[in-house]
Design a protein that fits this description.
heterodimer, A: 125 residues, OB fold (Dihydrolipoamide Acetyltransferase, E2P), 2 domains, 1 helix, 34% helix, rod-shaped, B: 667 residues, Cytochrome Bc1 Complex, Chain D, domain 2, 4 domains, 10 strands, elongated
Chain lengths: 125, 667
């Protein structure tokens, strides 16, 4: 075979290799993207009752609507640390709780519908 | 010989062999075909060399990989472990690039070894073209295993420029050796048959190499500015020094190239015995010298590849002075001198250009113009020169944060206040007995010294002033804390005029970052709000601040809707502060229980007269870029009604962003 023909074939092979590599890479990327969305959906679909023990500081007690506003630490798998209101399962739970109290409370429910089912006071802040 | 030296030698051989191959194939293509005996002998010799080069290329490539394996794991015995080498090849960017390159290089070696007789012009061109293609790609891809690919952002552009740099170096530097061989062969008596071929080849190589050298210079400058960034890193880091060495080797190469092009090349076709052949032999040795210098440059480049780039290293400034504009100290008449001097220098530059192009009495004109230029610079520059120290361009390793400033403030009170005064105005009790009056550190000029200057004075003292160094009493981190504190003090001096009215589009006062926590919640920092929300930082004292806090609490939802958040820090440290605030009014914005002391210590500096009587209530409005834009105290009317505050927030919301975000470290 003539040398130049061999070289032309070689370059053709390299070019095809490059093309295949590029296409494979593109497919791999879209597959990864799909998997990520699936995982996220699967995570969101976990609709089962859960329970957390969380620490927080009481910012406000609103008996009229049965809500306790708490600045709380991270709630793993549910929400990061923030200030927000939670409904209490029954008004007796927060009898005696005052603004500024450090509390440890138990949250229970199917996210996002969770309620406080237990409270212990730990100190003041 | 140590492991590192071996590894670097391997890399040097690798790059050198690659450059040689690219240059040789390019040169062979460029020189064209000839069946003169001397030329054929020369080509045969080159082919033999390319075989060696290809072997060396693969061998040194393998050694580089084994060196990298030892570098990655940090154990020298891993250099011989095939398993580690495989892992490095499979799992790192270096490895991916390595595999790709060596695939191509294997093909190249196969091409060279299995080469048959070329029967047609097509074969001839295909062989050389393919050698150039494979070798060039293999060389260019090296850029993706080096510093350039790590540039953020724009790594692709930087690596692309680096690849072009490598290719141009290959075509130019790698072509020098074949050229030298050809010229030497043709310069001998028996090689007379190759002379016309050699002259033509030298001419066309001269054209191509001019383009290649220009490309090398352009991409080199671009790369260097990516990796170095500023003069301090050039003069003050190891990487910068290596770059200077590289340039130092490049200059004689350019000079040689210029002599070759302007003097020797035209002489080649002169009368054989007296002019042509001697010129050819001289050219051959000059070209060989050029390529030796080029090999030395490659060595420097290899050293640079294992040295952290200048922009990541702390520069150690080597000169006793630097130029600063505007100068930190006002020198009488500096402005006039600058104006006059720069105009004179400009005349000098114009003279140089004119003299060069006019050609009329060139030497005289150029000489006079150069003298005028020097004189102009001599007038303009001296007022701008300020003393500099090795640490002048050091960057603070301690971020500009409230906690650091608070520590610095505390250290200042114990170590410096005796001389510089409790309020930093230079009027401490010990000031009287000193040879020189202690500086007023709240003066804006202190802000014009670099952070590194301040650090140097704190470490070594100021000779002859009575201020001794604190290098033995304060740790390095503590000295940077004091520097951060001094920065705040001089910024606060400039911020005396800050009011409750936002000055539109003119952010300049950096709000020190701070971290805080509310109860057991995760700690947050001011920077978390960057680019997203405005922050109203409230320093408050109970019970005086209670009505104002109530007012803010009532308007909290409006403030939030308008993109502002409130962070309230108690001036008394905040023990049980949320309990003390009580249930009514209902306060839901963050009230700092952890970190308040540092915030108050740092931010109260931005309050005039805060030194003498700490503020009871003050509010700062911080924009989304991290700049402090307005300050309010209850004795001013502006924000007494919530609408006043909301108007300023609205003003900031409408602002177009004109400055980069506030820097994390002082300079």
């Amino acid at each position: 075979m003539r040398l130049w023909k061999a070289i032309a074939l070689l370059n053709l092979a390299l070019g095809v290799g490059l093309l295949i590599g590029y296409l494979w890479w593109g497919r791999e990327a879209s597959r990864l993207r799909q998997e990520t969305t699936l995982t996220i959906q699967a995570g969101a679909a976990a609709l089962e009752e859960r329970e957390w023990a969380v620490r927080g500081v009481v910012r406000s007690v609103i008996p009229e609507i049965n809500v306790l506003v708490v600045t709380h630490e991270d709630i793993p798998g549910f929400m990061p640390s923030m200030t927000m209101g939670f409904r209490a399962a029954n008004p007796k739970l927060y009898a005696g709780v005052q603004v500024g109290d450090l509390i440890r409370f138990t949250l229970k429910g199917v996210p996002p519908n969770v309620t406080i089912v237990a409270i212990t006071r730990e100190g003041k802040s | 010989m140590s492991m590192t030296a071996l590894g670097l030698c391997a890399r040097w051989t690798h790059v050198g062999a690659g450059v040689f191959l690219v240059g040789t194939f390019a040169f062979l293509l460029l020189a064209g075909r000839s069946d003169r005996l001397t030329v054929v002998a020369w080509e045969r010799r080159l082919t033999r060399w390319t075989r060696w080069a290809a072997g060396l290329l693969l061998l040194s490539g393998l050694l580089s990989l084994s060196y990298q394996a030892a570098v990655v794991t940090g154990r020298s015995e891993d250099a011989l472990s095939a398993a580690t080498m495989l892992r490095v090849a499979g799992a790192t960017q270096f490895g991916t690039v390595w595999l790709l390159r060596h695939g191509l290089l294997l093909l190249l070696a196969g091409l060279i070894l299995l080469r048959e007789r070329e029967e047609s012009g097509w074969d001839w061109a295909a062989f050389r073209g393919e050698g150039l293609l494979l070798g060039g790609t293999g060389l260019g891809l090296l850029a993706w295993a080096g510093h350039a690919a790590a540039v953020e952002p724009g790594g692709l552009a930087a690596a692309g420029a680096d690849a072009l740099h490598l290719l141009a170096v290959g075509v130019w530097l790698g072509g020098l050796l074949p050229l030298a061989l050809l010229l030497r062969a043709a310069g001998q008596e028996v090689g007379a048959d190759a002379r016309p071929f050699a002259v033509l080849a030298a001419r066309s190589f001269s054209q191509i190499s001019l383009i290649a050298v220009l490309a090398v210079a352009a991409t080199g400058i671009w790369n260097a500015s990516n990796q170095i960034g500023n003069v301090a890193s050039l003069l003050g880091t190891r990487y910068g020094h290596l770059l200077l060495l590289k340039l130092g080797l490049f200059v004689p190469i350019l000079a040689l190239a210029a002599v070759n092009r302007l003097r020797l090349l035209p002489a080649l076709s002169g009368e054989a015995e007296t002019v042509g052949r001697p010129a050819m032999r001289r050219l051959a040795s000059f070209v060989a010298l050029e390529s030796a210098l080029g090999a030395a440059i490659l060595g420097v480049v290899i050293l640079m590849s294992v040295t952290p780039p200048g922009r990541h290293a702390e520069p150690w400034w080597p000169l006793p002075f630097r130029f600063a504009y505007p100068p930190p100290h006002d020198v009488a008449g500096a402005g006039t001198r600058l104006l006059v001097g720069s105009q004179v220098a400009l005349v000098g530059v114009l003279g140089l250009v004119a003299g060069w192009f006019l050609g009329w009495r060139r030497r005289l004109v150029v000489g006079v113009a150069a003298a005028v230029l020097v004189a102009g610079l001599g007038v303009a520059l001296p007022p701008l020169a300020v003393e500099a120290y090795p640490t002048t361009y050091r960057r603070s390793p301690i971020p500009y944060q409230a906690a650091s400033i608070a520590d610095g403030r505390h250290l200042y009170a114990t170590h410096c206040a005796a001389c510089h005064g409790r309020t930093a105005e230079g009027d401490g009790p010990d000031a009287a007995g000193l040879p020189r009056k202690p500086a007023n550190l709240s003066d804006p000029h202190v802000g014009r010294h670099t952070a590194g200057d301040l650090f140097w004075w704190l470490t070594r003292g100021i000779p002859g002033s009575g201020m001794s160094g604190f290098g033995d009493r304060l740790s390095e981190a503590e000295r940077w804390d004091v520097v951060n504190f001094l920065r705040t003090v001089s910024a606060a001096g400039r911020a005396r005029g800050l009011t409750a009215v936002v000055e539109p589009d003119r952010p300049w006062l950096v709000a020190p970052d701070f971290t805080y926590a509310v109860g057991p919640g995760a700690s947050r920092s001011l920077k978390d709000y960057r680019g997203r929300r405005l922050v109203l930082l409230v320093l408050f004292t109970l019970p005086d601040s209670r009505p104002r806090l109530g007012q803010l609490a009532r308007n909290y939802d409006i403030l939030q809707t308008m993109g502002a958040d409130v962070v309230a820090a108690p001036t008394d440290g905040g023990d049980q502060i949320i309990s003390r605030l009580g249930a009514s009014p209902r306060i839901l914005f963050p009230v700092v229980t952890d970190g308040a002391r540092e915030i108050v210590a740092a931010y109260s500096l931005f309050q005039p007269a805060a030194w003498r009587s700490p503020p009871t209530h003050v509010e700062y409005l911080i924009d989304r870029q991290g700049y402090l834009r307005a300050r309010w105290t209850p004795d001013a009317r502006d924000w007494a009604e919530a609408t006043g505050l909301l108007a300023e927030i609205q003003q900031l919301n409408q602002e177009t962003i004109s400055v980069p975000p506030a820097e994390e470290h002082v300079h």
